[in-house]
Amino acid sequence: MSRASLSHHLPGHNSIRHLRQLLLLCLAVIGMGVVGSARAIHLPGNQSLNLTLCDPAAANSPYPHYFHFSIVRAGSFGIYFNNVLHTSNSYDTPVQAAGTQCATPLTLRTSNVPSNSTANKILISSCYVINGVPTCTLLPPPSDYASFVVPIIPTLTLSPSTSPITQTGTRVITAQVASGTSGERFGLIEVTASCQASNGAVVGVSPLSAMTDFAGEAKFTINAQKLVVPLAGGTPAATCTFTARNLAGTNTSVKTINYQGVNVDPTIVISPSTNLTGKISTITATLSSSPAADLSGLYVDVTCTTQLATVAPNPAAAITNINGVATVTLNASGLVNINPTLATVPTANCAFKVRGSPGQHQASIGYRTANACAITTLLPKPAGCGNP
User: Fold this and answer.
1) Chain centroid offset of residue 334 CA
2) Among 28, 260, 262, 339, fewest CB within 10 Å belongs to which?
3) pLDDT at 214
4) Looking at residues 228-232, what average pLDDT do you find?
């Protein structure tokens, strides 16, 4: 029996159906899974394609494993495996030892594919050598030969495609590529992805490039880490762009997914909030916002206005911690004076301002001060009060 022979039963596994499902889900093309489809699949013609074929079921199989290509030709079609022209209608990858999932990476190049023709095709089988007899399972199903076609005009769609997105978190995006001339799905088309964020938004995508599988699909994950931004100066936003192109980069299809966030203006409260009396006081300034945002790393500027007294904030520009809290120490002196003019009393007040706040949000605190000469319970009066 030839290596390309087919079998309806594979010893050592539950069933061909089970194996086929596993292979369809996990056969890898340039690191991406080749997924079976009830639809025809197109592949780029007259170009070089890099394939890495993997069968996860082989990991637990006691049998050597390889992949078989069945080739349907028309006209002067040329197909090259690892840059060697292959003239027969079949090709086998090297047999791998039992337990080996993936074949050696393979370069497949085609030539003389005529425009708007689907006559040149391949079909891939996963094969095991069982007691010296090759046994193969067709992938994709026999009705789904993959046709090499030109021109290569990709049409890209994204799912889900709803935008703008306003929530943080991860989102899996399926990029599906179809042939712009036939509407059939296009495998082995490169899709690139990138995200551009502004006004403090943090949004990224991975991978940055992927090839569509045998269902014409490539998977990407967008991770929106930050959309609510304090003092952004504008609306936080991001645009993630997906581009499908042929290998020559001459025909492209572009789709985008947009993110929109919120620019928040934090409010501030301080503690303690009642008038101070001591020379040294520690003030905590707490910022908050709605919706909640990361309020770390923001500046709280402290300015103190005094008359006859002195108050020095340390630091004068405090930075909020991970909880949105800044701590400032106030050093005061001259809170009590001696003046025979009883109405002459020191004053001191400190303002805590959120730097850059459009609403100029701030909180203030004052000091209890006194003129010793006006304190009736203070006897005798200090000499400066004009005592005889």
Assistant:
1) 57
2) 260
3) 84
4) 97
